[in-house]
Amino acid sequence: MSNKIITRVAPSPTGWLHIGTARTALFNYLFTRQSGGELILRIDDTDRERSTKEFEDNIIESLNWLGIKYDKVFRQSERLDLYKNKLEQLISEDKAYISREAVLKEGDRDSVIRFRNPGQVVIFADTIHNSISFDTTELGDFIIAKDLDTPLYHFASIVDDIDMGITHVIRGEDHISNTPRQILMIEALGGTRPNYTHIPLILAPDKSKLSKRHGAVAITEYAKEGYLPDAMINFMALLGWSPQAKTSTSDGTNEEIFTLANLLEIFGIEGLQKSGAVFNVEKLKWLNKEHLKLLPANDIKKMIVPYLPASRLNDKQIDLLLDLLLERISTIHEVKHLFDSGEFDFLFDSPKPDIDLIKNIAHLPAIMDILKNISEDDFTASKIKEAVWDFATEKGRGEVLGPMRTTLTGKAKSPDPFVVAELLGKSETLDRLDRAGQI
């Protein structure tokens, strides 16, 4: 008998892939890959009326974006003959029967297929919740199919689990109540129980059920908002799991920052928690900001350029802006908001000198004299700071650097004046200082 671990992710294509299902997929992926096992993507499309190709494509696109790779993909709609065969088997063995129903919500349907419940106590082990006991008598003879060609989700799911040799089921704890009836059907079909791990649900900040207004939106929406896949992976991993020992990135900077590759090394299913995991969008933004810092400058530049008024910025200015932007954004999409808000208008339009804002113009002529002695090639933030610093220290940094900054940007708050001067260039910097010195 093979000891190979086989797991499955079984989303239903009746809606977009959201963070809860994506996190379940992540935990399955990490656990399976660590053991060299096999991960199956099973599209549970038994709900024929609500299942669509568009939603299925979204599921696959989202998993690919996150980097969660699976080994095989199945669609339940393509396995109806197998379910029919198993229904016929149970009926022939008197473990299920066709029940004539007087009134059903299905319209003109007058019969269903019910499982003949032996009414026993089912006890099963769970990685997180330990031993769980459930008296199945109260379930009665439950429905497993509308007819031989229309199995219900729970029946199709356990038939697939048996047929695919699923060894471990990792899913949300809301499925705990489904497990006893599934075990009854598994045993009736002669299958082997998988190992169960029911992970905590993701909750809203007020501990209520997570909804769209809290962040339960499609994974693809986070991608559109400029979040990085590694940040989403990092965020989801920390929702209901924590490393058992202090762990850090390769440079030892932060024990909460993980890439998918890091997680494959340190993830342990024993680190899964029992209590509900609270969704915190501010934590997600912080993680995204940290992951942006880990990217090479060229990669960040490629992502940021589409959000810049690129036709008005030269390549040197874009390179200089990267660090400034990274200080101010949590997601790439926020770059557009920064420029739309006018924070960087000083790059394109020279501000009209305002004595009430500048306050002290006494030192501007001296600053100009210092800057004139710096060559065009050496007109960089570091060289400008080096040249101005002693003078600013002598006269009072606030009295020198504040007016310099305000003169160049027309704003009370802005990047430091040395970076601004390099962004503007020598000629424009001197011109603005000159005009302000004459008011």
Report on the structure:
The chain has 439 residues and is of the alpha/beta class. Among the domains are: 219-300, Glutamyl-tRNA Synthetase, domain 2 (Orthogonal Bundle); 301-343, no CATH class; 355-437, Arc Repressor Mutant, subunit A (Orthogonal Bundle), CATH 1.10.10. The protein is 43% helix and 13% strand. The chain has 18 helices and 13 strands. It has helices at 19-34, 53-66, 80-92, 153-163, 179-188, 219-224, 229-237, 260-266, 281-293, 297-304, 315-328, 334-340, 355-358, 364-372, 381-395, 397-409, 417-424, 426-437, and strands at residues 6-9, 38-43, 72-75, 96-100, 111-115, 121-126, 130-135, 143-147, 150-151, 168-172, 195-199, 202-203, 277-278. Strands 4-5-8-9 form a four-stranded antiparallel beta sheet. Strands 1-2-3 form a three-stranded parallel beta sheet, covered by helices on one side. Strand 6 (121-126) and strand 7 (130-135) form a beta hairpin. Helix 16 runs parallel beside helix 17. The protein is elongated. The relative contact order is 0.09. Residues 245-253 have low confidence and may be disordered.
- Quick one: CATH class of the domain at 355-437? Mainly Alpha
Per DSSP, the total helix count is: 18
Class of secondary structure makeup = alpha/beta
**CATH architectural name of the domain at 355-437:** Orthogonal Bundle
Mean pLDDT equals 92
**What percent of residues are in strands?**
5-15%
Provide a compact summary of the structure.
By secondary structure, the chain is an alpha/beta fold. The chain contains 18 helices and 13 strands.
